[in-house]
TrEMBL record:
GO MF term (any one): proton-transporting ATPase activity, rotational mechanism
Family recorded in the similarity comment: Belongs to the V-ATPase D subunit family.
Organism: Ruminococcus bromii
Tagged with keyword Transport: yes
Protein name (database record): V-type ATP synthase subunit D
Function per UniProt: Produces ATP from ADP in the presence of a proton gradient across the membrane.
Coiled-coil residues: 34-65, 147-174
Name of one Pfam family that matches: ATP-synt_D
A single GO BP: proton motive force-driven plasma membrane ATP synthesis
Length: 220
């Protein structure tokens, strides 16, 4: 691991130790965030799988009702029955923050509260199979909205997990080892300088003592 290009001073050593402590805390927080995001992401994936399987079964049933209705009604009559819907669904979008990820929240409301408004036709000239198909689709709508919400949430959380994973790896395999190596390098340099200083001081002391000794002999 390459050592940072810094001056090997005690001030720089203190600064790097503080930065290492900050990076270590950040690494732990990001790992905790990544793990929690993964847990919630997997919960959503499981819910998505179960909900999608349920919707596919119910859509197949709705399709069967439409097929049966088309078997007893002409295409023109079937198209005319569904041409002018009386009910309208409004969707409102909000968001919820989950581990710094804004995931969507959908809420739906109908234009009227009358349940019979889901049928855009009179019952005199239509098949009960068409009624079943329309009711099935109406009951399926909340699940479809929830599925859209989950799938978008999974997409956003997956992107955040990948971004967090890269930051964790950068700290774990690049920044923290670089700080550690640089701190080790500066510590060794400072110790080497201390040893050199002590050696010089000892030599100066020996020279002074030797000089003092000779002076004392000359004086005697």
């Amino acid at each position: 691991m390459a050592v940072m290009n810094v001056n090997p001073t005690r001030m720089q050593l203190t600064k790097l130790k503080k930065q290492l402590a900050t990076a270590t805390r950040g690494h732990k927080m990001l790992k905790d965030k990544r793990d929690e995001l993964m847990r919630r992401f997997l919960d959503l994936v499981r819910e998505n799988k179960e909900l999608r399987e349920k919707i596919e079964r119910e859509l197949a049933e709705c399709n069967n009702h439409f097929v049966n209705a088309s078997a007893v009604m002409s295409k023109e009559a079937l198209d005319a029955s569904l041409m002018s819907p009386k009910q309208r669904i409004d969707l409102e979008l909000s968001s919820k923050n989950v581990m710094s990820v804004d995931i969507p929240q959908f809420s739906s409301s109908t234009r009227t509260s009358n349940e019979s408004d889901i049928f855009p036709y009179g019952f005199a000239f239509t098949s009960f199979e068409l009624d079943d198909a329309v009711m099935s689709l109406n009951e399926l709508l909340p699940d479809l909205i929830r599925l859209a919400e989950i799938e978008k949430s999974c997409e956003l959380m997956s992107a955040e997990i990948e971004k967090t994973r890269r930051r964790v790896n950068s700290l774990e395999h690049v920044m923290i080892p670089r700080y550690q190596e640089t701190i080790k390098y500066i510590s060794m340099k400072l110790e080497e300088n201390d040893r050199s200083s002590r050696t010089r001081l000892m030599k100066v002391k020996d020279m002074l003592l030797d000089k003092a000794h000779h002076y004392s002999e000359h004086y005697n």
